[in-house]
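Regression test case RT-17, inverse folding.

Input:
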C-alpha cells in the first residue's frame, strides 16, 4: 500500500505524517526530497538558476527558497516553469526511494507526503489519496504564528494552491483537522487500522 498524503499549506499534514510514522509507516517527505533536487551541483539547481537568475542564490551558495517563493507564488506562469523543472526530478527520486525500501524488505505501507500530489497528478503512483483539511481561520493563524508569514504571503500561498473542495474530489480519505491533537490522532489511527486490515478507510 502506498498512501499519498496531501493537503493545503498549514493544514497539519506533517503532523499526520509523523503520527503515521509512529504507527509504522515509512514516510517520504517530498519537501525534503525537493531540497535534494535543489542542492548546489545538481541538475535541478543548474536549471533553476538558468531559468530564474543568480539573484535567487543565497550567500551560502544554495537556492534562497524564500526569494524563489516570492517570485513563483505571485506569478502563475513562473510557478509553472518551476514546477516543470522540479516535479519530474522529485518524483524520480521518490520512485527510487520506494524501490530501495521495498528491496530492503520493508513490506508495510509507504506514505508519500506531497503537498502538490493532486496538482502534480501523482495519483498514478499511489493506491489511495488521503487529504488533510483544516478550517481557514486556523490555517491562517497557524501560518502567522508558526511560520511568521505576513497576511500578503499567506494570501499568495493560499491563492496559488487548489482549494479543499477540489482536493476532496480526489480523496479516498479526508482527515478533518478541526479539533485537538488527541482527536486528530484518533481519526488517523482509525484510518490506519482499516488499511492494515485490507479495507478502505
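Golden output:
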Amino acid at each position: 500500500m502506498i498512501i499519498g498524503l496531501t493537503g493545503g499549506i498549514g493544514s497539519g499534514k506533517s503532523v499526520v505524517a509523523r503520527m503515521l510514522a509512529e504507527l509504522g509507516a515509512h514516510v517520504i517527505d517530498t519537501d525534503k526530497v525537493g531540497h535534494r533536487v535543489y542542492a548546489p551541483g545538481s541538475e535541478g539547481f543548474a536549471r533553476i538558476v538558468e531559468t530564474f537568475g543568480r539573484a535567487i542564490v543565497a550567500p551560502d551558495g544554495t537556492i534562497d527558497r524564500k526569494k524563489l517563493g516570492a517570485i513563483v507564488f505571485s506569478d502563475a506562469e513562473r510557478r509553472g516553469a518551476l514546477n516543470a523543472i522540479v516535479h519530474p526530478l522529485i518524483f524520480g527520486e521518490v520512485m527510487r526511494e520506494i524501490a530501495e525500501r521495498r528491496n530492503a524488505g520493508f513490506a508495510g505501507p509507504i506514505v508519500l507526503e506531497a503537498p502538490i500530489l493532486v496538482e502534480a497528478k501523482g495519483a498514478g503512483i499511489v493506491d489511495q489519496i488521503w487529504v488533510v483539511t483544516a478550517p481557514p481561520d486556523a490555517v491562517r493563524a497557524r501560518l502567522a504564528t508558526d511560520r511568521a508569514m505576513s497576511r500578503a504571503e499567506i494570501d499568495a500561498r493560499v491563492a496559488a494552491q487548489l482549494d479543499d473542495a477540489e482536493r476532496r474530489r480526489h480523496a479516498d480519505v479526508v482527515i478533518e483537522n478541526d479539533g485537538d491533537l488527541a482527536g486528530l490522532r484518533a481519526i488517523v489511527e482509525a484510518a490506519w487500522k482499516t488499511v492494515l486490515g485490507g479495507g478502505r478507510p
